[in-house]
Each structure stands twice: as structure tokens, then as C-alpha cells.
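Q: A reviewer asked whether we had any structural model of the full assembly, not just the individual parts. We don't, so I'm hoping you can provide one. Inputs are below.
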Amino acid sequence: MSTLEAKGNWIGGAWRPSSSGEVREVRNPSNVDEVVGVVAWSTPADVAAAVESAEKAFRSWKNMPAPSRARILSKAADILAGRLEEVARLLSREQGKPIGEARGEVQRGVDLLHYYAGEGWRSLGHVIPSAAPGALMFTVREPLGVVGVITPWNFPVAIPLWKSCPALIFGNTVVLKPAADAPLTALAIASVFEEAGMPPGVFNVVTGPGSQLGDALIQHEAVKAVTFTGSNAVGAHIARQAAARGIKYQLEMGGKNAAIVLADADLDHAADVVISGAMRFAGQKCTATSRAIVERGVLDAFTEKVVERARRIAVRPATDEEAYLGPVVNEAQRQKVLEYIELGKAGEGKLAAGGGIPEGDLYARGFFVEPTVFVDVRPDARIAQEEIFGPVLSLIPADSPEQAIEIANGVKYGLSASLFTNDLTRAMQYIRDIEVGMVRVNAETAGVEFQAPFGGYKASSSYSREQGRAAIEFFTQVKTVTIAPAGGC
Ligand code: NAD
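A: Here is a predicted structure for the entire assembly that you could use as a starting point for your response.
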């Protein structure tokens, strides 16, 4: 065990060890010999303590004027901006995101804090004409209470903040349970809120084993809503529990995102964007480009451009300034990715680039995978149907734009898609027919903006939307008020 001091949970405005006293090391996926930090390995009792703190803090937080809550979020934004490099390096070391992208994510966190601080100053609710003489009828939006926030490891600044900021600004209190692969970054966010003067108990973080803590959080009677981002298997489990308790829930889950390349597209632009979408952050984005569906007329030319770019990618430890592609997050994830690569090699496609673990001392102690491209992949192959979450791209030929859309829609997921074309009519048809929540034209499947609604169709989401003003819908409930003059008017 390392000599680093263990970080406690952030509960009720204090740093507290796990009630079991257990701790776990967090290691750097670029070099597993490096211990990045040590965190509390908590128990359901710690979750209960966090929920009770959040419950206790709820009434006064709810009753605080929204502009006062906004000032705390604005202050947190300034503090996080001042600590951008520190938090980005921590993120990059704990979870393997290339440092340039990690900086971008922390900046997104700063912007999210500013954006939702702004919501504290905006109007909520409507005045509605009443049929009763002299009556005033209006709606107010009220918070739900204690909200459980369960997040994945792949965006450990952005996702906790794009859920917690709207929860907080609308007057809810929060218990965040981050993924076991990225707890230190979540604790850094807690320390930002601490420095910003967040009242004790309003924001809490508990680190430890996902299933035990997650269950304890959803089952606690004081928790009134749970917002989750992660895999479909865990999402379905959370939905069942939340429905049984009758609490509000929101699920954002997997993707199998396609880029469609039509014959008239700017192929260099399309190849740059498809490679970026597929390979940046080792394909570990829910919106990563996993399939490129290409009209046959340009298939050879496009394949050549994509393969040439894949071979040039700089695979490096995540904190290396040159890193375009870092490691995947852990050994289990690497094994899963390699198993899919084996399926590809065994006949689901033809290997055109990568296909293994890069060789050399630089890669010996990390979870690296080569940027891998398969061509001639059948649309029903497992590598073309299942979420891989690794730097693996499948090229699928299509005979027509209509068939390309049909192939794109032929998966269970519906998160994000791109179309590359200069033909406006084709673009309009695609916008109408594609079954995804995030529709892009000549742009990457990943890299969506937080001020707009975010979420998927089909198995990618529970039909709710996050971010932007859409967040109001999940994190508030509506009260309709009628005030009639006593004795009429
Ligand atoms: P995961 O489902 O394994 O874990 C997500 C969170 O759930 C973690 O905090 C984990 O500890 C917790 N958890 C695990 N078991 C639980 C249980 N029984 N009850 C409650 N919580 C439990 O997902 P992951 O591996 O961290 O993330 C990768 C997945 O997330 C991919 O499928 C990816 O597509 C998805 N994702 C989706 C979006 C989106 O917005 N749609 C964004 C990022 C990631």
C-alpha cells in the first residue's frame, strides 16, 4: 500500500474516512506502477450518513434565494478555473485521458458552473390566465429533495458537474457516487465546492464499490431522484429499483454511433473527423464514432485516408503533451477491447490498421491498444452492433444513402450520428430519418455542447434529456398556484 494519505469522503462539509476504515489505491492506467492517490473504500453506512447530511441541508438550501445559490456556483467556477491545470493533470493521471483533452474537460466544467449559475437569475414558471374572476394563476418549479448522482469514469469532471450543477441551482441537495476508476477527480470537485463556501451537506461525495454504494443510495428513503450515466446493464438495474420505490430517475447509457460518408462528401474533412471521433480518448466516449458507413463509390478512397491517419496517430502516456491516444482505463477494459479485435480478425471484418497492443517500453506498464480499423464489416457483425468502448473503427459499405441510414439505425442504441455531405436535400432526409438524439452534419459524433439538450433515442437513454435548459425538467417539479381574491372582486 502506498504512503500517500487517503482521501476521505466529503460528507456534511467534512472529510471523513470510510466507516470500515478501508482504503484503495488509484493507479495510473498509463503506468500502473504509479499510485495517483488513495481513497476511502466506503460502505452503505457512509452512503446513509451522506444522504442524511443532504436531507438535513435541504430545507435551508431550497429556501436560499436562487441568486445566492448562483453566487456560490459562480465562485466555484472561478476556483476551478484557477485550478484547471492541477485538476486536468489529476484527471489525466487517474483515468488516462490525454492531457489536452483533460484540460478541455476541466474548462467545460468551469463553463458548466457559470452556465448553471446563470440559471439562478432566470425566470422559472409561467403565469396562466385563470377563468376565475380576479384570480392569479401561476406555476413555480420546486426542487425534488436529495438527488443521487451516479457517474461513469470517462468524464469525471464534466458528467458529475452537468448533473450536480442543475440539481444544486434549482435547490436540490446532492450525494455523488463517482465511478471507482475516477474517484480522485470527484473529490477535487468537492474541494472546489468546499472552497467556494457551499453550505455543509449540500454536496456530498462517497467513494467505493459501485454496486453496494449505488444500491444503498437508490434504496435510501430520503433520496427522491437518481440521475445515472453508465452502462445499459447497470442502468436497467437502477431503473427497476427506482420504479419500485416510485422515485424519479434519469438514465444516459451506451452508444454505437455511426458516421455516414456520402459520395459527394469532402473526404479529407470526413476522414479527419471520423478518426478524431473514433480514436480520441481511445474511443471511450459514449458518443465516440464506432462505425463509418461509406457509399461504395468513395469507399476505397475514404478507406485509404482513414487508414493512413490511423497509422500516424501518436499513442503516448496520457500526460505526454503529444498524446492523441492514451491508454484505456483498466486491464478489464483492455481485455474486452482485445476480444472484440479478435472477433474482427476472425472474420467479422478485414484488419486494415492496428489490431493489437503497441510494442515498446513506453507501453509496457499501461493499458494501451493500437488504433484499429476494420474494413468490409457486415452491419450485423458483433463489432458493428455492440459497444466496444475502445479505439476500434468498423468501415461498412453502403449501396445508397437510404441504405446507409438503414444500417446506421440497425442497432439497439440511438445516441449520436454524423452525416458527411454537401447535398442539402440528403442532409434533410437524414435529419428526418436518423434515430438518434444527437444529429450532426459534417461534424463529429462526439464533442457535443453542454448548453443544448443531450441524450439518446432507443436504448441509449430513458427518454429524458440532460444539460442546457432541458435539465430543468428532471431536477424540478411543478407546483400550480391559484390565488383568488377573498370574497371575489
Ligand atoms: P458502469 O455502468 O459500469 O458504471 C457507472 C456507474 O454506476 C459507476 O459509478 C458505477 O460504480 C455505478 N454502479 C455500478 N454498479 C451499480 C449498481 N448495481 N447500482 C448502482 N450503481 C452502480 O459504466 P462505466 O463503465 O463507468 O461507463 C461506461 C459506460 O457509460 C458506457 O456504456 C458508456 O456508453 C456510458 N456513458 C454514457 C454517457 C451518456 O451520456 N449517454 C456518457 C458517458 C458514458
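A: Points you may want to mention in the reply: Residues 99-119 form the longest helix (21 residues). The pocket of nicotinamide-adenine-dinucleotide is lined by residues 150-155, 177-180, 210-211, 214-215, 229-231, 234, 237-238, 252-255, 286, 387, 389, 415, 456, 460 (CB under 6 Å).
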